[in-house]
User: What shape does this take?
Amino acid sequence: MAWSHHSCTTQSCFLQQNTKIQFVAALLIQRWYRQYVARLEMRRRCTWNIFQSIEYAGEQDQIKLYNFFGYLMEHFTPASSERSLISHIFRENDVVHDTEWERYFCYKSIEVSHGYHGPHLTFPMTFCEASKLVEAFKHKQLLHSRYVLQLLGEAWKLLRILPNINHVSTCHSKEITICGDLHGQLEDLLLVFYKNGLPSSEKPYVFNGDFVDRGKSSMEILLILFAFLLVYPNGVHLNRGNHEDHIVNLRYGFTKEVLGKYRVHGKKILKLLQKMFSWLPLATVIDGKVLVVHGGISDTTDLNVIARMERHKVNHSAEPSEPVRRFPDPSLRTPKNSLIFGLTGLFCPSAPLSVCPSELRQRRQQAGLSQSLQELRRLVSSSSSSDEDDDDADDDGGSDPQPRTPERDEWKQMVDLLWSDPMAQDGCQPNQVRGGGCYWGPDVTEEVLGRHHLQLLIRSHECKQDGYEFCHNRRVLTLFSASNYYEVGSNRGAYVRMGPDLVPHFIQYQSSQTCRTLTLRQSIGRTERSALCALREQLFAHKSDLLGAFQHYDPDNTGVISLKHWASAMEGVLKLGLPWRVLRSQLGTSTQDGMLDYREWIQDLLSNASILETMYRNHSNLETIFRIIDTDHSGSLSFEEFRQTWKLLSAHLKTEVDDDAIADLALSIDFNKDGSIDINEFMEAFRLVQSCLVYRVHTNIMDPDIVQSWIICVTCKKYSQCF
Amino acid sequence: MLFPSALGPEILVTGVHKRINDAFQVFDHDLNKTVDVREIGAIVRSLGCFPTEAELLDIIDEVEEPNGFICFERFLPTMSKILMENKFRPIPEDTLLKAFEVLDQQKKGHLEPNELTEYMRQGDEPFTQLEMEEMLSSAVEPDSNLIYYKDFVNMMVLDGER
Assistant: This one.
């Protein structure tokens, strides 16, 4: 490009040309940049899917765990020795009235020593005291267990007189603020208070569940929420989430947090919280028009039934005399391409596999029936023929094949409220991914909202990248308030303000200082690394299965397989529904002529020593089981506890295990020979045997054959010869 | 909720079809073989194409369903054709560098943020405020507050190779 000064006309001609070239150059850069951003978006989306699929698979396992203990409940016969164990775990003794519990939870005998530098609370709770508490937690202080029990005790009294559904009106105050999942992330709650102000009667709040688990400050969040609840019972409204449940807490970290922070009184605090959770209201309705609930709805949701139930009795810890509250057994509805993740549940999948829902819909349409299952049922029952459920007739419209009783109806209403997720297609089907509640479609939204004269449903339960997301024609709003949930930079949190016009206004935020300065590229990279790390852990847990699957495609033992087979094998073993081909490069696979050396790949991928030390296949399941059996939260199992549980377990699995074998087993596991089994020994026993036995492709620790082999192996001490 | 592809294996024969299916699947949240029309830009671009916004709108016109979704059955043939014909070819790295050099009229080796902003926010398909902020956040060298475009291009290309 020659730059020179000429006469006016030629100069303008040059300038025009210059401008034109710059114009073209700018367009080109725009085009390139948009392509670049799209590729980043693709990566971000993949990363998100990884996290979500791992998270939901964990929840599914959780439900299976519930069902297992439900089974225990149903089949336990009150022989005197067994009675104590099971009653500890599950039984709420009706004879012990609330007043007796109040005595048990009494704080008065707890002394506050001079060495305590945390906040001192006085009661009745006032705004000053509550703000003092917030300040103290901001400075990372711990509230003394005396005040914890006192505060919780007061809040418990209040919760017991609250209705199942909070009814709120915006006419008294100008605007109401709604927050979604917090999951123990205190920084996010503090950020919301900073931006929006503390709760008061003029500044009412609705907190939509999942206050605890995963984050490190679940206890502090609960204390703050309950404190403000006491000060402004008409200004603070709490909805129960699926994580406000003591069994979920065993797995997802809240139990651990409380026991860690309160070593002496932790168990008592946990017991009190267990009761308080069951007394949390289930939903909030604003101006009779906006429904706020943690999970969602189903086609059978009926707010009148919900309003009438005795919510504290409808939970998993059912008494043996009543039908056991069980979640729909996921194995009954497992689609062909099973979602049972490598941590294959705690159950013998002995139930028949049912048909994949979309296939079923196709078949039904071909048969000329495009009605929902519920309509079919109505037709059938109105012609007074038998209403027997078939195993494969339970997806569309109907979500529940079990015989209906009033207790079961109530229980289902509650589970649907706390566990359901929206989907794009019409209809209503069981939520197989989570293992509880439903997937509900836009038609169900219209029907349920219409029936109750509501205009909007606000729910939480699912993490969203921007903190909130509309669906179902803007009739359903998902709101999530825990920012950076999966990883720093993974997502923003949001809260909603709403005035009498009931138009939601969103405020988004991201709580970490560092992530605000990260570029788009850096934050995606960071989240991606974290997701890949989590994924690698899953790969490690399935190393032998993966090798087996690869070898299946390599009958001649050449050591290489095609990429296509690699992807099939990965999905077949892990069942995460991830786009393997897209993830291939991030997992370090290099190919030559389209073929992959799988043995080398597994070696490279899984050579990380820290993974070797910490990963056991059924790690979180085992840990959860341990914590459940360890009813006094002492950190170790007595032989007796172990024996009783083992007997029940083997009865469930229909295997014969005699007392001597169990005794030998217990002795073998007690590595340090101190007469009890602590959690490390418990886990170690499973890990060692796992390395030594040859497992079939879909091993799970509740498979009877595996259990038998394991017992033989351990008691014969064969495994000790392997090391 | 993540299920593998429900299409039978006999349909996804070629590698091209498989690539399109994989990219599509990433954005297909409910696994019902549809994606929101707003995601189509990301999908098309992630398959290696460099369309302009206008060209994207043309694609959308061709495949969009009335409800604002795009279903795989209509998307697959359109996208296959695009990939086979190598439409919307990628921009080579040195062309991109030259483009920046053209904008750098005084041959300084860098651009000021407001210079770049002016260029990017003009034309038929200007950057939105958000796009501009994002680009500046990765392009601007924080200490000098300048855009060393050679480094910027290198970085973007390196990322692209992953």
User: Anything to note?
Assistant: The beta strands of chain B are 34-36, 69-71, 140-141, 146-147. Chain B touches chain A through 55 residues (CB under 8 Å). The longest strand of chain B covers residues 34-36.
